[in-house]
Amino acid sequence: MMTKRIGLFGFGVVGQGYYQIAKKQKEQWVPDTIVVKDQKKRRPSDIKFSYTAKDVFDKNPDYILELISDEKEAYEYVTEALKRGITVISANKKLLSAHLPELISLQKVFGGKLLYEAAAAAGIPVITNLETHFEEDTIISLEGILNGSSNYILSRIFNNGLSFEEALRMAQQKGFAESDPSFDINGSDVSSKLNILILHAFGKFVGQEQIATFGIQHLGDVEINLAKALGLKIKLMAKADKDYRGISAQILPTFVEESNSFFGVENEYNAVKIVSEHLQEQFYLGKGAGSLPTGAAVYGDLIKARNGFSYNYSKVNFDKPLDEKLLNLGVRVLFRSKSLEQNDSVVFSPEYSIHLDGYYYTVGKVKPKNFSRLNEEGGVSIVALPDSVSAEDVDYAFREIQKSVEVV
Amino acid sequence: MMTKRIGLFGFGVVGQGYYQIAKKQKEQWVPDTIVVKDQKKRRPSDIKFSYTAKDVFDKNPDYILELISDEKEAYEYVTEALKRGITVISANKKLLSAHLPELISLQKVFGGKLLYEAAAAAGIPVITNLETHFEEDTIISLEGILNGSSNYILSRIFNNGLSFEEALRMAQQKGFAESDPSFDINGSDVSSKLNILILHAFGKFVGQEQIATFGIQHLGDVEINLAKALGLKIKLMAKADKDYRGISAQILPTFVEESNSFFGVENEYNAVKIVSEHLQEQFYLGKGAGSLPTGAAVYGDLIKARNGFSYNYSKVNFDKPLDEKLLNLGVRVLFRSKSLEQNDSVVFSPEYSIHLDGYYYTVGKVKPKNFSRLNEEGGVSIVALPDSVSAEDVDYAFREIQKSVEVV
Ligand SMILES: NC(=O)c1ccc[n+]([C@@H]2O[C@H](COP(=O)([O-])OP(=O)(O)OC[C@H]3O[C@@H](n4cnc5c(N)ncnc54)[C@H](OP(=O)(O)O)[C@@H]3O)[C@@H](O)[C@H]2O)c1
Ligand SMILES: NC(=O)c1ccc[n+]([C@@H]2O[C@H](COP(=O)([O-])OP(=O)(O)OC[C@H]3O[C@@H](n4cnc5c(N)ncnc54)[C@H](OP(=O)(O)O)[C@@H]3O)[C@@H](O)[C@H]2O)c1
């Protein structure tokens, strides 16, 4: 097989993971040009680095790997490459989530290909499966744990009793967190991934602003202890459903029962559940972050591209947008707020309410369209509650945690 | 897109599942010729049937779907088709497990393609993933629940207290069982699937006679009640491992702990866990039997074939065969036998033994090479025991079940 020219942008967690794998496998997959940004950073002395994209493009590469942390510059590199008909592998969910419709057009017009498995669930080949196995199946819902870093944090909190801050520091040390970890914990990383997956599952580009998002950063001890008292865990769940009205999508910390497939998904693992008409129910679990699993996803895309694989986007149809009414459907949650006014203006169909340590906790319904505003109001926390956990269960748990406080 | 000519062999559980999906999706995927066997069977009157393979081949089909229950005749149809360079989709694990090396050669020589996702884990795209995502990753182990029918039976026994016979009858009614259900329960269906998966995972054709196999048909109430007393379940597990000595493969009823990913796999679901060097750990769950999931896997293969996808078999290397010594490694089990002689001649490193209701139950090691002989000796049952379940735990459980017997 003829050696291919490969240009690599970025030599961080993902870039180094890719490099390590390519080096160990076949020499032909080692990039001939590696572009990074910071001229002052110490680098391995046995690798030659470049600091300008020109060095990549001048060599007329067959493949470009875009593994940088920046969105704007990635946009320049990727669109330039696609316009030259080059095959690009990207791990950049921010870029993809913002620009997929344009990037799909560029592929169609100029014949370049773009693969990006690492941008969704890293080690789990969910985009590939959606594009092959599910290509002509009708998907009913897609649900997942899509951020390795926040899942790692929740595992440390629930299984090791760590505080939020301690757990976040550990996730950063292990390389699971994005360079700006606030994207991990406020749900925005998940929302970019869900936005990409929705396109492949349902053929629509909904855009992140249409995905009702609330992160784990406002979780308090009460929610955590409540979950423990009921034998539940809290997971940051992403969910997209399709029915006759359209697609609804939301990202919410969620009380998860032991019988739920996601209960046992721990640490940096991601998991995805797809319900479809023919294949019915599938569940995938794999590493969603970290140097080797992400590098391997990039490497896998490169091998697939060499074998002639590309995304067909056969479900894609951008005609009819998301129905905004879906953001008005109620989600059953445990809602925490600082004031009774806030509580009453947001929660409808309340089932239970309690006042504890200066906060109001209410079981009831909230509208996804309010999530982004509530995120900024402060004091608020929202955790989705499955129907099978009744208001009585919640009441029982509140009594339990108050008991334990009194005893200490 | 030009209409393709499709010939279908077989209109049973899988054939009808495929037909139903093709009909609902796009008319072009509905077969123009359907060959079945029994001229006296009542059939839907709105579909035309043929009774000779000639009717398919005379039409020069682009695709042939081989979905019949017979192995020998399937061999004729599939080899004939491949020699004509036709693309074939098959669900026939018996055929594939017996003849894969030859079928791979025929593809290479004549340019026809053969896809067979439905033959492994039906709804789960495990072969496709092995051929794409894992193509250049080194697989360390592959483990799975690969027979929907026996898993369904075990679920009914463990979750609904049914007897073995009642549970088997239900599996047959639901269409999960093969036409001859003994293949489901004696492990031979699983062993043909594992044989196929080993080829795609490790590149070796080990052959079913090298896969140490023991089914669920000899399971007794004692093993089942013992599992229940310990909070365990029994699952029919298939496992293949690779180390410096070679590949070892075995199929055994296995005590499974709650912390194991396979614990929650119920009913006709299949599941596969793959551990590899780069992607590390992946777990897939989906429907492994039944009309629609299996039909959808066939349909998915057809769509993939149309998109130019084929198996690369890039790991395949038939040079060095399986090391027979691996069949001599010990597996830790609970062993039941009718005589002390049999017990002592088979079990080594015994940790615990008890005599109950005319049987000897021993925790110790047995050699996989003895499984097939023990299968025929009668009275014997073998259930693999994880290291974390100690001899003391087993002793405790034996006391518990004897207590409950006395009380009744
Ligand atoms: N970490 C994960 O587990 C993970 C998982 C899935 C997807 N991703 C995605 O993969 C991408 C890379 O993530 P990462 O974790 O590897 O980030 P990282 O460790 O922060 O590394 C980023 C790399 O990009 C380089 N870079 C930044 N701007 C550049 C520019 N304009 N031109 C050339 N190089 C530039 C940096 O150069 P310097 O070395 O000079 O700083 C650095 O080498 C991101 O899009 C991220 O969202 C990450
Ligand atoms: N059932 C499952 O869930 C499942 C899952 C995965 C794979 N599979 C595999 O899929 C294949 C089909 O299984 P199935 O469950 O659909 O079997 P089935 O329900 O017993 O149906 C078998 C079909 O094959 C036809 N047939 C048998 N010999 C034939 C011959 N020589 N020429 C033409 N047609 C012939 C039969 O014809 P008549 O109608 O005239 O009897 C019948 O239509 C098997 O290889 C099986 O191992 C099954």
TrEMBL record, chains A, B:
Cited NCBIfam families: PRK06349.1
Catalytic activity: L-homoserine + NADP(+) = L-aspartate 4-semialdehyde + NADPH + H(+)
Positions of the Aspartate/homoserine dehydrogenase NAD-binding domain: 10-117
Pathway(s) annotated for this protein in UniProt: Amino-acid biosynthesis; L-threonine biosynthesis; L-threonine from L-aspartate: step 3/5; Amino-acid biosynthesis; L-methionine biosynthesis via de novo pathway; L-homoserine from L-aspartate: step 3/3
Name of the molecule in the record: Homoserine dehydrogenase
Keyword Transmembrane helix (UniProt): no
PANTHER family listed in its UniProt record: HOMOSERINE DEHYDROGENASE
InterPro entries: Asp/hSer_DH_NAD-bd, HDH_cat, HDH_CS, NAD(P)-bd_dom_sf
Presence of the UniProt keyword Secreted in the record: no
EC nos: 1.1.1.3
Protein family: Belongs to the homoserine dehydrogenase family.
Pfam family of the protein (one): Homoserine_dh
UniProt entry keywords in alphabetical sequence: Amino-acid biosynthesis, Methionine biosynthesis, NADP, Oxidoreductase, Threonine biosynthesis
Ranges where the Homoserine dehydrogenase catalytic domain occurs: 125-303
